Amino acid sequence: MLAxxxxxxxxxxxxxxxxxxxxxxxxxxxxxxxxxxxxALTVRAAVDADRAYEGDELTVVVELxxxxxxxxxxxxxxxxxxxxxxxxxxxxxPVPTGxxxxxxxxxxxxxxxYRVGGVVARARDRSGLFTDEWTLPAATxxxxxPTAETVATLVRPQRTGVVSGDQxxxxxxxGIEHADLRAYxxxxxxxxxxxxxxxxxxxxxxxxxxxxxxxxxxVFLDAFTVDAIGPAVRVAVSVxxxxxxxxxxxGLVSFGGSVSWVRPGMGERQRYRVTDALLGTQxxxxxxxxGVNVIPxxxxxxxxxxxxxxxxxxxxxxxxxxxxxNRGIDxxxxxxxxxxxxxxxxxxxxxxxxxxxxxxxxVRDRYRxxxxxxxxxxxxxxxxxxxxxxxxxxxxxxxxxx
Amino acid sequence: xxxxxxAGVAALAVLAAPMASRPPLALLGAAAVALVGAGCAGxxxxxxxxxxxVLGATVVLADVDAGTPALAVxAGPGIxxxxxxxxxxxxxxxxxxxxPRVHLxxxxxxxxxxxxxxxxxxxxxxxxxxxxxxxxxLDAVAVAAAVALVxxxxxxxxxxxxxxxxxxxxxxR
Lengths: 402, 173
Known about the structure:
The structure holds 2 protein chains of 2 kinds. Chain A is of the alpha/beta class. Chain A folds into 3 domains: 41-145, Immunoglobulin-like (Sandwich), CATH 2.60.40; 172-210, no CATH class; 213-401, Rossmann fold. Helix content of chain A is 31%, strand content 33%. Chain B is mainly alpha-helical. Chain B has 2 domains: 2-94 and 104-131; 133-166. In chain B, 80% of the residues lie in helices and 2% in strands. Chain B is built from 6 helices and 2 strands. The longest helix of chain B is centred in the last third of the chain and has 31 residues, at 135-165. Chain B is globular and about 55 Å long. The chains are: A alpha/beta, B mainly alpha. Strand 6 of chain A pairs parallel with strand 1 of chain B, so a sheet runs across the interface.
């Protein structure tokens, strides 16, 4: 516009210098407009993996196909919260005729299920007069697994199953672990004779052993509290991985606004099944009262050890766990400590906080009186230590009962 | 680079003017350079445009004082180069990592446009020296030519927009 005014002004005022000054701008404008042609660009994107762990870096290969060369195409990934670009991002590349590829890295920062592969490509013509933009919607599903803490010490279940496993059963039978000595009775195998005891006592004594059996473990995830979902899933993944590595059968019950479950199973496939269910766990607002009767019978075997991961904040989850215990289920509770900052920042007075703390302590005490260990896990703490405490409580409780 | 070039154009205008006119022209030139700097730093293309107008005014005033339009032939492409470089500088301020060879096309474009405009300016300067008697009809032709040029630019802009809206599915603007 200024160039047009300058040109007309120059002509009308008979000033050659005005015309000479404005002519370059008009020339640039006309040349730019005449040379500008819409770029015929096709954008495709592919992600090199559909599963990753937190902290992993993945590569998105963006393929740009153009019918004519484009000087500069800006390529940016459209990433959801939880994924972040790694390295140079966005990038600008020249696109020659044909196909060219741009590799962009992204980092999985938080576990979850994401849609990735969304790309925004922006091409500007040489003169900078026109900008064209392509938006490629995200189409690839990426599952980011939480990093599982390696746990060596696990809670020993009170009852074992009938399938062979790594867990030493309380019952005696054929196995490796030495259990006791007893006098020989006809029919005992000769290999079981304990010759040292026999020599000492002057009559035949045989070894008794405990068999190694698998156990059923069900992780009960309290999904009522939004803030606790993240840490709860971390704990659940660690516990699941550890038990499955010991060839136990592991199941999952996600108990919240919506209830979902995975029946107990073993092996690597089960690990993926449980992890996928955990990744899909979300806290849905729901005020309908529900109990354990909404959980299918086969999901909670009678001999299973149930490890509940809960912040003990929702009465429905607390009541469901009491119900499970009253039905004779072997139960251990890993309590997710509430964020102290959130509690301190809440609009309650000191008295309110003390009442809240007393209420929680009362709930814990009720569980403990039923023989259920309740151990607090803090986000930065070691899960192994928590499970050690659970195990110690159960040993102590057995001695106290015995 | 835009700043240096702007300072160069301003200095050229100041040096071409008579001694008495230099201080106000120097002030005007400095203001133009400051505007270019502010536009680049603040990523305001409008401020760069204002700087171009102030630089142009400096050149025109210097021409008036010097009594010759020769300065505009060199200053016109110079101001265009300042604007293009400032525009590029603003583009580079966005957090986009340019891969190698991505700037070649833009460099080529700037060099071509500046060279072309320098040539055009020279032709206009030479033509303006030719004594032509035409009076009002010639003035009318000149105005019509200027209007036609502006209309051509508008038509081309319209065509470019239409071509994009009719283009293959995918691009959105």
